[in-house]
Amino acid sequence: xxPIDVGDCDLFSYFKNNQADMVFNIAEGKCxxxxxxxxxxxxxxxxxxxxxxNTFSLALALNKxxxxxxxxxxxxxxxxxxxxxxxxxxxxxxLRFPLIVKPNCEGSAKGINLSSVVNNKESxxxxxxxxxxxxxxxxxxxxxxxxxxxxxxxLENGRVNILPILEIDFSNCAKxxxxxxxxxxxxxxxxxxxxxxxxxxxxxxxxxxxxxxxxEVALKxxxxxxxxxxxxxxxxxxxxxxxxxxEINPLPGLNPRESNFPRMAYAAGMKYEDIIDEILMSAYRRxxxxx
Length: 291
Ligand SMILES: Nc1ncnc2c1ncn2[C@@H]1O[C@H](COP(=O)(O)OP(=O)(O)OP(=O)(O)O)[C@@H](O)[C@H]1O
Ligand SMILES: [Mg+2]
What we know:
The protein is of the alpha+beta class and 291 residues long. The protein has helices at residues 11-17, 35-45, 55-61, 64-73, 121-135, 183-187, 208-224, 260-267, 272-290, and strands spanning 81-84, 99-103, 117-118, 139-143, 147-156, 160-162, 166-169, 199-201, 230-238, 243-249.
């Protein structure tokens, strides 16, 4: 397979004029709330198969609030939340501080920093307004779950392979003042000067019963969102042992050195090429069965 960087060219003409059997999709799109679904929508129109989730699941998973409504309907635990579109709405009296304020349709922890975790109404509304203006989209406010940070990778290829759970431990990050997966933590990961040095444990430090329960929750999430081939579900295990799903990433980062998905695959004894092969083979198999 020769990877092609189509960059900013006219994608529609590109795909129309270059017969492709299969597109390995890692496109995050350009902008807007449906950006991860843009390229798959063009491919659907041209009837070109692609790896990973379909247009619908990609658009849905980028919307945290809609995803959480589906999780709730499926009895999958997810933090209690409220969506703000104007910034002057009444705060739902059921929500308990601390709360975390996030743009509803971003990724890579964009808009998530230390001041996103708020302990009173004044800082909440100030952060909600700031986020509304800056990101020009609705804002989601969630109960902040203290506990273990976990992420679960799933690879499908005829069978479902749930990879060893990855735990991200922030206990060495005290110097940074940050204690969760903020934008700075992701962007400057490993910078000891800044104190942004999370420790990765894969498999996570969990007992067997917790591991089984968390994998089950990740699989249910993958299925509830209708994901194909690959996904990564972010979870916080609360102090009272409830695995709260924060979100699902149907297009997880696949950087061989820096991304969390390959970390989990390596822990399962896979090589980078194996990850790519599994995704491709799964997509081929699915398309063969459907045609
Ligand atoms: N309700 C919450 N309780 C505790 N921590 C949270 C909560 N929501 C978000 N976080 C922290 O912020 C991080 C980023 O949040 P989230 O996964 O929702 O955003 P994202 O931008 O979609 O992330 P990604 O980089 O995985 O695409 C989480 O991994 C977690 O550390
Ligand atoms: Mg996340």
